Amino acid sequence: MSRELLVRTASGVTLGLVVLALTWIGGLAFKLLSVVGMGLVFYEWFRIVQTRQLSKTVWAIGAVSLLLVAICIFARWGGLAMAVSAAGAGLCMLVRALEGRDAWPAIGVVYAGFAGVAFAELRDSGQYGFAILIFLFAVVWATDICAYFGGRHFGGPKLAPVISPGKTWSGFAIGLFGGVVAGTIAAVVLVGSSVGWIIVLATLISVSGQVGDLFESGFKRQFGVKDSGTIIPGHGGVMDRVDSIIFAAFSAYLVGVALPGHRMSADGGNGIALQLLGP
């Protein structure tokens, strides 16, 4: 095994174990993980966009907005946190328009803020909070792995050659299949969920994750950047590792909120995971 592959494997396994441990613990520990992750995504996004001359005003608006979002997360005000993030993005967009520049910083505020809220709210869903995140991880990780190896083995037409030349339709299909299988197994084993509904939900999550991967690839290509950062040895930045799971988590959050008959969990959680995985 080459040194580069060894470093990549070791850092990936270590990071995965830390995330799983904090997911299991939940509560304040997972909220801290969500907030720290949100902050790192914000920093990496703005550092990349900085190449187009971000003003101190835009930096300040973004930072203050996400600080307020973090406070809302700890206070369990999910809806307000989303509103604050959207308001901060709108203010960023207004300032950038007055400066005659693009809206990429505003998109970054929403991208980071909504991600932090979605993760925290899903885990804080009472008795099924842990299960929904394990379900998400199973779908997204299996999708990524199966898409990578499936695409390399079968090749074929490119999925989005302009955005990500290495991705193929065969990889997309095999990743989707692998993600649905892994997610269904996880949900049935952990909760005993209805297989039919879980297949639908896992399909949505898998597709959302692959769209998220393409979204970040397109963003980095827009700025001529290979990696979003260097904080994770052998992997790059935080955004490089969570691009798929951000879109997947937010999709799950939206579905849970939108489902009719929203229920509170027995231990006081917001009931989103109960809506998504409840048998």
UniProtKB/TrEMBL annotation:
InterPro entries: PC_trans. GO terms for cellular component: plasma membrane. Its main location: membrane. It is found in: Cell membrane. It comes from the Bacteria. GO terms for molecular function: phosphatidate cytidylyltransferase activity. It catalyses: a 1,2-diacyl-sn-glycero-3-phosphate + CTP + H(+) = a CDP-1,2-diacyl-sn-glycerol + diphosphate. The chain crosses the membrane at residues 58-76, 103-122, 128-150, 171-191. It holds the Pfam family CTP_transf_1. PANTHER family: PHOSPHATIDATE CYTIDYLYLTRANSFERASE. Belongs to the CDS family. This is Phosphatidate cytidylyltransferase. It comes from Hoeflea prorocentri. The lineage of its organism: Bacteria, Pseudomonadati, Pseudomonadota, Alphaproteobacteria, Hyphomicrobiales.
